[in-house]
Every structure is written in structure tokens, then in C-alpha cells.
Amino acid sequence: MYQNYIFDLYGTLIDIHTDESSKNFYKKYAKWLRKQGFYFDWKLFYRLYTTTEREYRKSVAQEGRFVKPEIQIEEVFRDVFAANGYDLTDEQTKYLCESFRRLSLIYLCLFSDTLACLEGLKNAGKKIYLLSNAQRSFTWQELELTGLVPYFDGIVISSDEHCMKPDPEFYNICCARYHLDKAQSVMIGNELKSDMAGAKAAGIDGFYINRAPVFHEEQDPIYRYVSLKGSLMEVLTQTGIMPC
User: Fold this and answer.
1) What residues are paired with 177 via a beta bridge?
2) CA-to-CA distance for 229 and 169, rounded, in angstroms?
């Protein structure tokens, strides 16, 4: 039925938990920064980082270019370090962003059915795309670590496009870039207000992966398919690739 399968990443293909808000995390990051030759009191870094990120998000929202705009976290880091007297190169900025994410990780792993689902789609001759609300400098290292990159025929990350789900323009960018027929495409994700709402607004069928322990059926669902048990293998069975 479908030729193109568009996946969300976190909560759909990858199970992840990070800590980017606690006092202990910022103490750990400030300690790590000192070893790299960048001296910040953790409270100063926390204040600069959270304030600067908030200001960037407010600024892009006021521009009104997108329904749901996105920032590039590298710009935040450059401003934070500049405020403390450090002029970063692009290479340094990327490294500091990647390290910030790595130090924040509590756990990261593929869901048990992720590879079986993707391999099933590949074996059936389907095209697989990633549409992720994410920062490239955070996410690309995790895509490589989990071995997911080769499975995708195209990858679209929100920080690159300055917009994110549920903005329909984010879906339109993906479809235009890879010449996808929306009628032959389906969006698979675990978020109703993000993945499914955006797909519906963009005119793409949605497949909701219910990762929650309970499920409440909507009177007027915004998705076409649902896996009540949160199984990616149902993507294969319900769309006719594998027998039930």
C-alpha cells in the first residue's frame, strides 16, 4: 500500500533518557569543561545556557516564519561561551555540543523490535525516512552509535530546517526533498500532538505507536493505524507487508 515509511526517532525507534536540567548534570559538565580549558562556575553556565536558549526560541517564534520553529543549539553554545570570553571555532562548538549531550545521557538503546521492523521494510523494497525533532550535533552521534544511519533513504532533522513537528512544513520539506508522494507515505511515531497531528495537517497517513502503558481510544482519531501494544512489527502487518 505504501512505498515510503517516515519514522520519528526518540520514543519510536530509540529509547532514551537524558538529564539536561539537574544541578548535578551542570556540575558535571562544568567540571568536564575545566579539563578542556574552559572555566565556568556551574551556576553561571546554567544561567547563561538556559537564558540564551530561551531567548533564541522566543526570537524565532516572533519571526513568524514557521508554525513551530526550531533553533540551532550551536548558536546558543557560541553565545554562552562568548559571554565568558571564549571565541569558539566551528569545530570546538560541535565538540562541546556533542559532549554536552553525551554527558547528559542516562541510557540509550534501540527498542527490541526496531531493527526487525526496518529490515522487514528494506526486504520488502520500501523506502525509509527519518523525520526527527532534534539537534544534529546531539542526534547524529546517536544515530551512528545505534547503527541506524544505513537504514534510511533520507534523514531530516529539525535543527537543519529551522522548523519541527507538528509544523506541516517540516513534513513538506521531507516530501519535497525526496520526491515523496504523500498518498504513498505513512508517518510512524509515538507522539499524538507531534507526530500524528503534524502528519494529519500535512495530508499524510499516521501510524501511532502507543508506547504508553495504557491506551485511550479517541472518538475521532487523527491517525489511520495504531499499535495498541506499541509494537513496531505491527507496522509490517497492518500495512500489508507481512501476514498477521
Assistant:
1) none
2) 30
CA dihedral 21, 23, 27, 30 (to 10 degrees): 40
CA atoms within 13 A on the CB side of 213: 0
Distances (CA, A) of 5 to 64, 70, 83, 162: 30, 23, 44, 23
pLDDT in tens, 101-151: 999 999 999 999 999 999 999 999 999 999 999 999 999 999 999 999 999
The whole-model pTM stands at 0.96
Residues 6+ apart with CB under 8 A from 202: 168, 171, 172, 175, 182
Helix or strand holding residue 235 (H, E): helix 233-238
pLDDT at residue 217, rounded to an integer: 72
Cα 67 to Cα 1, 18, 62, 114, distances in angstroms: 31, 27, 11, 31
Residue 230, SS3?
A: coil
Q: Is the pLDDT of residue 216 over 80?
A: no
User: Amino acid letter at 244?
Assistant: C
Instruction: Say how many CA atoms lie within 13 Å of 5 toward its Cβ.
Output: 28
Q: Which residues pair with 105 in a beta bridge?
A: 18
Residue matched to cell numbers 499524538: 192
**Cis status of the peptide bond prior to 221, with omega within 30 of 0:** no
- In angstroms, the CA 88 to CA 91 distance is 8
